[in-house]
Amino acid sequence: MLIGIMGDTHGDLTVLRKVVELAGNVNAWIHTGDYSQDAKTLERITHLPVYAVCGNCDMYEGRAAVENLMNLAGHKIWITHGNRFLHGYGEDTLAEVGRERHADIVVYGHTHVPVVKWYDDILVINGESFQTSYGNSYLWHFDH
To answer: For residue 111, how many other CB atoms are within 10 A of its CB?
Structure first.
């Protein structure tokens, strides 16, 4: 299963559409917040499942949940924007919280810095921000 990961889109639908085009054939999307309403647009234009959370800039009605813990492609994935867990701490804090939630993958946003890193048995991924590097998102192939 190929999953597209994006976040911190901040309402820039032109860039969102460009990333969808560049990503090609994916099976689902994860949106890590900061304008989580963009996830609804993403779902509408791709006709694919979109798993989303809200971020620290999502202060309006219709925002996504703060966290999402789900089973997908044989993995337990914890999605968070990250702002509630990164106050002066590194990704290892997210890995520890993910472990407490019995996840094996943590996907987050907020920092606008790409991360793909293992913390022992926990994979931590940040799909970066469109605002800091045009058209960047991550594609992740999840095997069973």
So the answer is: 18
pLDDT at 42 over 90: yes
Does domain 2-141 bear CATH number 3.60.21.10? Answer: yes
Question: Cα separation of 97 and 15, whole Å?
Answer: 31
The confidence score (pLDDT) of residue 129 equals 59
Say whether 6 sits in a helix, a strand or coil.
strand
- Answer yes or no: pTM beyond 0.85: yes
pLDDT of 49: 96
Listed by start position, the domains of the chain span 2-141
Per residue in 89-132, pLDDT tens? 678 899 999 999 999 999 998 887 788 899 999 999 987 655 54
| Contact partners, residue 45, CB within 8 Å, separation at least 6 | 17, 20
**φ/ψ (deg, to 5) at 29:** -130, 150
Q: In the predicted model, is pLDDT for residue 139 greater than 70? A: no
Angle, helices 13-23/38-46, rounded to nearest 10 degrees:
40
78 within 8 A of 104, measured Cβ to Cβ = no
